[in-house]
Design goal:
Length: 201
């Protein structure tokens, strides 16, 4: 560990702090603004490995199977994510369909794959410049993945549709819900600085 590794800068008030060793239940907090500086996560690498692998599987199920089945006033339909994006495109919402495709399908897939590869490289302690590049990709992509917002939007619209008709929650919905939890844990709950700590250069 060199001297620079011992310093951490608060991402809210930019005050530099000297790092201390903390245990698993402790949280390091900025003494100026109270912002969380860092936490210690148990077995983070193994968690990232198993959660990204699970997220990969549930991502495919959520995309292949219908998310919801609707029965409104004699209309029967199933809703799949990809079909919905095509529907938007065919109805002239070119930008919206492209935006949805990137933030709901392409970026999440890239992010999950990058996390999986990164954890694999680190578990086997493979020294490679590639792991740093993966980490840069993860850091950028996590800001452009909207699966959580998408899922909440579905929940909100479900409440509306419930008033009008019968709704069946499909296998895709359950997978999307699990994917939602995994994504929240990997990319919102775990601070990105914890990912960078795993990198040893
Ligand atoms: Zn601060």
């Amino acid at each position: 560990m060199n001297d620079l590794d011992k310093i951490i800068i608060c991402n809210r008030c930019q005050t530099p702090h000297i790092k201390k060793n903390i245990t698993n239940d402790e949280i390091a907090i900025c003494n100026i603004c109270g912002n969380v500086l860092y936490k210690k996560y148990n077995n983070l690498l193994l968690k990232l490995f198993s959660f990204s692998l699970s997220a990969f599987i549930f991502f495919f199920i959520a995309n292949l199977f219908p998310v919801i089945g609707i029965d409104i006033a004699g209309y029967n339909g199933e809703l799949r994510i990809i079909e919905t994006i095509f529907f938007l495109f065919n109805n002239g919402y070119v930008f919206l369909s492209f935006f949805t495709l990137m933030t709901i399908v392409i970026f999440p897939l890239m992010l999950i794959s990058a996390t999986f590869m990164f954890s694999l490289l680190r578990i086997f302690k493979i020294k490679s410049k590639f792991s740093k590049e993966l980490l840069v990709l993860i850091t950028i992509l996590r800001e452009f993945v909207y699966i959580d917002i998408f899922f909440v939007a579905i929940l909100v619209s479900l409440v509306k549709i419930f008033e009008y008709g019968y709704i069946l929650l499909g296998v895709g919905f359950v997978s999307l819900a699990i994917l939602f939890v995994l994504m929240i844990y990997m990319y919102r709950y775990i601070n990105i600085s914890a990912y960078w700590e795993l990198l040893d250069v």
